[in-house]
Amino acid sequence: MTDWLFGESQSRVVLSVKADSADKVLTITQAMGVPAAKIGTVGGERLVIDVEAGKQASACRVDAELKTLLDRWGNSLERALNQA
Q1: Longest Cα pair distance anywhere in the chain, in angstroms?
Q2: Alpha helix (H) ranges present in the chain?
Q3: Element holding 47 (H helix, E strand)
Q4: Is the pLDDT of residue 26 over 70?
Q5: CB within 8 A of 27, min separation 6: which ones?
Q6: Is the pLDDT of residue 65 over 70?
């Protein structure tokens, strides 16, 4: 499989559901022939993403406080305009 910045392949979707609904969602997607897998859990005050090593990249970890990420996202345009 080749990674592309742009492509015409089918899109991917990340769906967040309550823990007690995960099995039901996976059952429904399986019945519809849609590939699906549980890839993690949500909760807490931090965003932590562990990326496995692949053919073209080494493993890495993202670990940041949610309030820091919200600030960076929510105020990025204002900061950029004030720097000009």
Answers
A1: 54
A2: 22-31, 66-74, 76-83
A3: strand 46-51
A4: yes
A5: none
A6: yes
